[in-house]
Amino acid sequence: MTAKLIKGTEIREQILAEIKEEVEKIKAEHGVVPGLVTILVGENPASVSYVTAKIKTAKSLGFKEVQDNQPDDISEEALLELIDKYNNDDTIHGILVQLPLPKHIDEKKVLNAIDPDKDVDGFHPVNVGRLMIGGKEVKFPPCTPAGIQEMIVRAGVETEGAEVVVVGRSNIVGKPIAVMMMQKGPGANATVTVVHTRTKDLASHCKRADILIVAAGVPGLVKPEWIKPGACVIDVGVNRVGEKISEKTGKKVAILRGDVDFDAAKEIAGWITPVPGGVGPMTITMLMKNTLNSLKYKLGLA
Ligand code: GUN
Fold first, then answer.
1. Is 115 assigned a catalytic role?
2. C-alpha 2 to ligand 1 mean position (Å)
């Protein structure tokens, strides 16, 4: 193996320790802690496990955490009223509505109802606009792209003038990470290309990348010969390709595979993120950072 592993599990611990220290300092000096509410509608098993992990992390950092679970058949109106309640609650600084929502609820309408200054997911159009403008305008970068940028920076990968190729153009990962990497500023200043399902020659673009960010949702899409020797490869793919029995718990767990052929790619890349244990752990971490920042904006500390 030639590539250095960029482990999200390790970077997460560093960032969470930094957040915890700041929470304690703010609590001592201002008598307040960050407040995060997660709103979960229904009992989708993946959503339940994400929300549980978010709440557990918030608790471990000394946040006020509220897990507000609602039945599958809650009306859109009642959900909007609930969001309004938290918009007006001074002890809550971050509101997260776990997606997907049931079909009878208009997801866009719900996300747009969250106060943009409590939108720690960064999905509200106001925050999407702020991200596009860049610099000090940005309040809540979306969590997965923010985690990716943090990993690149903490691994010591040069981004200034680098050729960044993003595979995928989703609103949650591809589009925002492309914008973030091309902005002026540290950890950015890159030349960015976005490729997608209609791109004519994916391989030729990927081969130019100093930093290759893959968020396509296609297991093993990126072949080793598409990788420039020494490149930094960030694999955002979390594809369930089967099930196995966990050695630790004896329970059935998903077998996860990334969008990159890891075993071959690690012999060519300079840096690479594993799946699992790479980008995945960073998303919740950056949600905590956004929630802390929300309180800091309110207190005039950021
Ligand atoms: N469902 C899957 N990922 C996410 C996320 O990052 N935020 C929210 N709100 N829902 C999700």
1. no
2. 34
What's phi and psi for 221, nearest 5 deg?
A: -60, -45
Which residue out of 38, 99, 236 has the highest number of ligand 1 atoms within 8 Å of its CB and is therefore the one to mutate? 99
Is 283 within 8 Å of 246 (Cβ atoms)?
Answer: no
Q: Write phi, then psi, for 61 (nearest 5 degrees).
A: -95, 0
Q: Which of 119, 121, 235, 261 is catalytic?
A: 121
pLDDT digit string (tens) for 86-104? 999 999 999 999 999 999 9
Calculate how far, in angstroms, residue 136's C-alpha sits from the geometric centre of ligand 1: 25
Partners of 39 in beta bridges: 68, 97
- State the alpha helices, DSSP H only, in the chain: 8-30, 45-60, 76-87, 107-113, 125-133, 143-154, 174-182, 202-206, 262-265, 280-299
Single pTM value for the model: 0.96
* Torsion of Cα atoms, 58 then 174 then 279 then 183, to 10°: -80
Summarised one tens digit per residue, pLDDT across range 15-25 is 999 999 999 99
CA of 144, closest atom in ligand 1: 6
The contacts of residue 296 (CB under 8 Å, 6+ apart) are 26, 302
Q: Quick one: pLDDT at residue 1?
A: 66
Ligand 1 interacting residues, C-beta cut-off 6 A: 96-99, 121, 143, 283
